[in-house]
Specification:
Strand order of the largest sheet of chain A: 5-6-7-3-8-9
Shape of chain B: elongated
Largest interface: A-B, 38 and 28 residues
Shape of chain A: globular
Order of helices and strands of chain A: HEEEHEHEHHHEHEHEEHEHEEHEH
CATH superfamily of the largest domain in chain A: P-loop containing nucleotide triphosphate hydrolases
Number of domains of chain A: 2
Number of strands of chain A: 13
Distance between the termini of chain A: 42 Å
CATH architecture of the largest domain in chain A: 3-Layer(aba) Sandwich
CATH topology of the largest domain in chain A: Rossmann fold
Structural class of chain A: alpha/beta
Radius of gyration of chain A: 22 Å
Oligomer: heterodimer
Strand content of chain A: 25-35%
Strand content of chain B: 5-15%
Radius of gyration of chain B: 24 Å
Helix content of chain B: 55-70%
Largest sheet of chain A: 6 strands, mixed
Number of domains of chain B: 2
Chain lengths: 317, 342
């Protein structure tokens, strides 16, 4: 990596904010990242999607300069993450972090604002995450969702050009998740690049300009949501929910269907010939004498594409 | 747009340190747990032990002073000096001829030897390097205002020699509460550095504060500096509360050497903070840090003579000839220095 000053004009011309080439990382004998390469462009939301342990947080922490790597190279605005100007220009939402909980949101934002040469006023940052009314309360008295929104406010207090959001909506209720989505959309509207990690497929589909599927430290696919679906060759996604619990041996026989997996009592699979595959499946179900509670046939989602690429259900539960 | 500046100016650094220090102080000040252990507990310990031991006949003899026999047969000034020294409960006074006195001093049997000088009202106090605080202590006993000169000068390797000119005599009795006051101040600063710093840093690490700071432009220097300033502020609050309690409840007279007191306070805070930072650096969990700090604490307190004078402690703790004790027993020296300055 070169060490010239950050050239924002050059960055704008090239439109590339982050460049990652052939990144490798292992923890002991566990290979956490294998040959990971991607770019993030100006004003783009790139989402890293994958189950727990797929390497999302490792990538983000390497880019933030918090973790070392074994091989490969990367740059942010053409620089190492430790470069003072890069530190001034990025915002980070950590997956596992709590602010000093005996301070108020206004106090914590004033503190973090003092680290940077430029940025938002604390009140402005609080307004962006709709926390103005909580600005004087102690952080320990805020709800989980409010604390997460405060974390976002801390991440954007320097009005960053690039924001890392590491699983920002884990554990939030649907309403709080939607309000987070709005905050992320607003960041993109303002020209900020975002690297988002999540294992919620609907979140990735709703927010991302591009999605990188990660499994076992490897990028399986990286493209826009529509391109990922279109290039998958899948025409339909099918979910069959059964009335009573299905014995393991019967489950195993259905899992023989390519790309199929079970989620509790529901069988999920994709097909590009629904007219051929469904009657065949009904016949097998009839022979096993089990009852269907619900049948859903729909256009494939990126979750279906991921499961097809990764081979079955990669997510917990 | 990204600005073309790489280093923070000193004014910005100071502002960051100020803001971060304030945040650390508020974080702790709004915690009932921290307030109890860091502020209320040392005051409680001091008042409790102060009441318990001020009523008991506690042996506080910490030194034996040898005196030239010739002093006894001299004029009124010499007799007054003899009386003042004997009046103090922390001292034993014994009489020896000069050769015997110097030999006993060298062998560590006595802590000082007072020899009469030919000039009237002048005495030479011989003292070994093991008992450097002694002259200051003697100054306190004789009442500092009564001493015109206390001139240390070095002759050969040892013993050190001090010339003290006494212009008047007024005895001052040191009670156990002075000893306890100094000891509890040392304990408070010990808890502040040895316990609170590792707990704070390990908690900050666990909760992600350190990670959060790591990717920001905040430097390690500013972080460490802020934490130290916070500990110094807390230590100053502890000392202030203890002093107020000591004055109001036990009628203690405070130091007449504020700069020496301040220096001792800062040096003590620094010494215990270094141990605290060391523990925080090598230990990953609060529980383990507290356990190890507790062991260190007990060793430092008992072997350091914080709770009782070393001469009153079991022989195993009286390792007064170990010259590196100033490194491993900061508590003892803080206690001694606080004591002699009260």
């Amino acid at each position: 990596m070169n060490s010239t000053p950050v050239d924002i004009d050059q960055t704008k011309k090239r439109g590339t904010v982050v460049e990652v080439h052939n990144l490798f990382k292992s923890y002991g004998t566990v290979q956490a990242l294998r040959d990971v390469s991607f770019e993030v462009h100006k004003g783009e939301v790139l989402t890293l999607v994958g189950p727990n342990g797929s390497g999302k947080t490792t990538i983000v922490e390497i880019l933030e300069g918090l973790r070392s790597y074994d091989a490969g190279s990367f740059s942010i605005f053409g620089q190492k993450p430790s470069h003072p100007l890069v530190k001034q220009s990025i915002g980070v939402f950590l997956q596992e972090s709590q602010p000093m909980d005996n301070l108020t949101p206004r106090e914590i934002l004033r503190l973090h604002r003092s680290f940077y040469n430029r940025g938002l006023q604390p009140e402005e940052a609080l307004a962006r995450v709709s926390l103005q009314s909580e600005s004087g309360k102690l952080i320990r008295t805020l709800s989980t969702g409010q604390k997460r929104r405060l974390d976002i406010a801390v991440a954007i207090i320097n009005d960053p050009l690039l924001v890392f959001l590491d699983e920002p909506t884990v554990g939030l209720d649907p309403g709080a998740r939607r309000s987070f989505w709005e905050i992320i959309r607003n960041l993109r509207t303002e020209g900020c690049s975002v690297i988002l990690t999540t294992h919620y497929m609907d979140e990735a589909e709703a927010l991302s300009d591009r999605i990188a599927f990660l499994s076992h430290g490897r990028i399986l696919a990286l493209d826009t949501p529509s391109s990922l679906v279109n290039s998958s060759g899948i025409e339909h996604s099918i979910q069959i929910c059964f009335v009573s619990p299905i014995p393991g041996d019967i489950k195993d026989s259905f899992t023989a269907i390519p790309g199929s997996y079970w989620n509790n009592n529901t069988l999920l699979f994709t097909t590009n010939n629904v007219e051929r595959d469904l009657p065949q499946l009904f016949k097998e179900i009839h022979e096993e004498n089990i009852q269907i509670a619900e049948l859903i046939v729909h256009r494939p989602t990126i979750e279906d594409v991921f499961h097809l690429l990764a081979g079955g259900n990669q997510f917990d539960g | 747009m990204v600005e073309q500046r790489s280093k923070l100016p000193i004014t910005r650094r100071l502002r960051i340190i100020g803001r971060l220090t304030l945040s650390f102080i508020l974080q702790e000040a709004r915690s009932k747990n921290a307030i109890f252990w860091m502020v209320a507990f040392p005051v409680f310990i001091f008042v409790f032990f102060g009441f318990v031991f001020s009523q008991t006949n506690f042996e506080t003899k910490d030194m034996t002073i040898g005196m030239d026999r010739a002093l006894v047969s001299q004029g009124n000034e010499s007799k007054l000096l003899d009386r003042v020294l004997k009046q103090n409960e922390s001292l034993d006074v014994e009489f020896f001829d000069p050769p015997k006195g110097i030999q006993m001093l060298a062998e560590g049997e006595i802590q000082a030897y007072i020899l009469q000088l030919p000039e009237k009202d002048n005495y030479t106090i011989y003292i070994t390097e093991r008992n450097l605080p002694f002259v200051s202590m003697l100054s306190v006993m004789l009442d500092r205002s009564n001493l015109e000169t206390v001139k240390p000068f070095f002759r050969g390797r040892m013993p050190f020699e001090y010339e003290v000119q006494v212009v008047s005599h007024k005895g001052k009795r040191l009670s156990y509460i002075y000893f306890l006051f100094a000891g509890v101040m040392a304990i408070a600063l010990m808890m502040n550095g040895l316990f609170a710093i590792p707990q704070t840093i390990i908690n900050y690490r666990k909760l992600g504060f350190l990670k959060r700071f790591a990717f920001s432009p905040l430097g390690k220097f500013e972080f460490t500096c802020s934490l130290m300033v916070q500990r110094i502020c807390l230590g100053a609050l502890q000392i202030a509360l203890l002093s107020v309690s000591a004055i109001l409840i036990f009628g203690i007279k405070l130091t007449t050497a504020p700069f020496a007191f301040l220096l001792t306070f800062l040096a003590g805070t620094a010494a215990f903070s270094v141990l605290g930072f060391f523990l925080a650096g090598v230990i990953q969990s609060v529980e383990a840090a507290v356990a190890i700090a507790q062991i260190l604490n007990m060793v430092l307190m008992f072997t350091g003579g914080v709770f009782s004078p070393l001469r009153s402690s079991p022989t195993i703790f009286s390792l007064s000839s170990v010259s590196i004790r100033c490194i491993i027993w900061p508590g003892r020296y803080m206690q001694q220095l606080f004591w002699v300055r009260v």
